[in-house]
Design a protein that fits this description.
single chain; alpha+beta; globular
Amino acid sequence: VCKNRGIRVYSYGENGQDIKLLQYREFLELQIFGKVYQVKFNLSGSFQVYNVLCAIGLALATNITANLII
């Protein structure tokens, strides 16, 4: 439906094509559109990590740049 309406869909997660989780240990390492970022977060569960990735996707959808989001 989104494709037919011309709406961009971002994929995210460990297998995400647009927002990819590379590592989560002491910091969050992710790749956004091919560029790697490392961010220090105080998160206790993997569900919180995925919430952050989703929020990044929502911000990108409103044309906020990855650099500004990070």
